[in-house]
Amino acid sequence: MNRFRLPYHLVVEEGVFDDIPSVIGKAFPKPGAVKTILVTEENLKGIFEKTIDEILRDFSQSELHLIQKADYDSAVALAKYITMNDIRLVIGFGGGTVLDLAKFAAYVSKTQLLSLPTTLSNDSLASPVAVLGTEGKARKSFRCTIPDAIVIDVNVVKSAPDRQLLAGIGDTVSKDTALFDWKLAGKKRGDAVDDFACMISRMAFDSMLCGEGEQLKSRDFIIRLTHALVMGGLAMEIAGSSRPSSGSEHLFCHALEEDFSEECNVPHGIATAMGSYPACIFQGRDPEKIIRIIKNYGIPVKPSSQKVSEEVFVKAWQQAAATRADRYTILSETDLSENRLSALYREMEEMF
Predict the structure, then answer these.
(1) Which CATH class is domain 162-351?
(2) Same fold for the domain at 9-158 and the one at 162-351?
(3) What residues does each domain of the chain span?
(4) According to the per-residue pLDDT averaged within each range, which of 11-25, 200-214, 332-346 is highest?
(5) Distance (Å, rounded) from C-alpha 95 to C-alpha 97?
(6) 312-339 average pLDDT score
(7) Average pLDDT, stretch 5-18?
(8) How far apart are CA 71 and CA 78, in angstroms?
(9) DSSP E strands: which ranges in the chain?
(10) Using the 8-state DSSP alphabet, how is residue 90 labeled?
């Protein structure tokens, strides 16, 4: 049985970034009394300068770290710095890139972690997985810590572009095909499948089935999307792997990110949603629920709208399984001929 841990706090409120210490006092007793490092990036420092300055002032023994690259070497170097300087609290302030690096550095240095997401574009805000660059354009998923506390300011998330929220919904859509692939691996290869993790991941997907696109910037929807993304992260923590949230649709996404980034630059959550429809077809299932969510919220999965050509679409699917060769999915046993994939591309062009 996998041993897992859960965050002490999940706070989703309007204006909560204005009073961080009092909100997290229970998770981090006397937070101002410990050495703290706030991890973010240069452009966010410019956008949220006042908020970041106030947080640094509230944590009296704190310093700012601006990441230059979200790769493995940078994360390890930060972990070394944290350890050598007796820092006891890491605050990740930003999107998935920042949070992944902060999570891995906190994990390696055995330091407490506070996650302050500025967007809801994927489930990295609560997942025990950090995706970091390795060599060249290659990226690898590393096991890491789940945050001790997650604090989300609804007003900050509202200010983010709609595209980022749509990516967050897209990352949740992918749970449907990921769960099928995980159970398939259990049947065909004997992989362990955790029923409780499956249940939580399924709840995340189901929560997106209600509501319409005009609710995107409402407080209630942002809270619901937060809960869905957090449930996805918790499902991975319980399972001890990313399998409850990542299947063949993610392998397609990885292929786009690793092999075709010069041709197209598709946000992670949009790419996984784009991959979920074909993956569901490969699985021999009715994609009605996936289509409903995509159309309800207007997730831009039409391949050409993301500069994904028919040629790239076909090659990405044919190369997808190789991005995670140890992972059994429907791609291990399906027809990925050029004719079939080209037909699917044209189908998606017309449908979405």
Answers:
(1) mainly alpha
(2) no
(3) 9-158, 162-351
(4) 332-346
(5) 6
(6) 96
(7) 87
(8) 11
(9) 9-13, 36-40, 62-66, 89-94, 112-117, 129-133, 139-143, 149-153
(10) E
